[in-house]
Amino acid sequence: MELTKKERLGYIYQLRILEALYPDEAIDFARKRTALEDGYSLHYEWLTETLSDDMSAEECREVLNILDMYRAITFALQKLDEGDALRGHRLAKFLGFDGNNEGQLMAYVRYFIMDLDRFDELKEGKFPSFNSHMPMLDTYRAMLERWNLIEDRFEPSRAQIAAVLGAE
């Protein structure tokens, strides 16, 4: 990262303010400030080390489409008899995304469901992690392809849900 002296000065002033406002984090802010003051350009990256890479609007929409699909599946399954085997299918509940390989998707789900308080019906337990512990994106994409073939996605039939879950 390259910074002009003017940009460095702006960050230095901001870090001084942050040091005063957040004494518990002052040491970290002071280290970053020192790197800027002394011109250690290798360490300018420290200013942004806690920022995640951007997630495109398309990626966000895809996750929201998956959540919408699971919302409808959840409500449709609730209408089935308690003993219906489809309710216990391994994909009947939203598992989340793999924390190791799909971490940004998992974090977005957590943000959207927990922080924005949406999709309550997909929450499992008091502190859901949404970590599937296995890659799920390809599975969800295949499910979405089948889902998008359904005309009335607000009232899918049992057979349509079985097809989407791959339980035919």
How much helicity do the residues have?
A: 40-55%
Following the backbone from N to C, one meets helices and strands in this order, namely HHHHHH
Sum up the overall morphology in one term. Answer: elongated
Q: Largest sheet at a glance? A: none
Number of helices: 6
Mean pLDDT: 95
User: SS-based structural class?
Assistant: mainly alpha
Rg over C-alpha atoms, rounded to the nearest angstrom? 23 Å
Q: What share of the residues does DSSP label as strand, in percent?
A: under 5%
The residue ranges in which pLDDT falls below 50 over 5 or more consecutive positions are: none
Total number of beta strands: 0
Please give the alpha-carbon distance between the first and last residues. Answer: 54 Å
Write the layout of secondary structure elements.
Blueprint: H1 5-21, H2 26-37, H3 57-78, H4 103-115, H5 137-147, H6 158-165
Helix pairs in contact: 1-2, 5-6
Write a concise synopsis of the structure shown:
The chain has 168 residues and is mainly α. Helix content is 49%, strand content 0%. The radius of gyration is 23 Å and the shape is elongated.
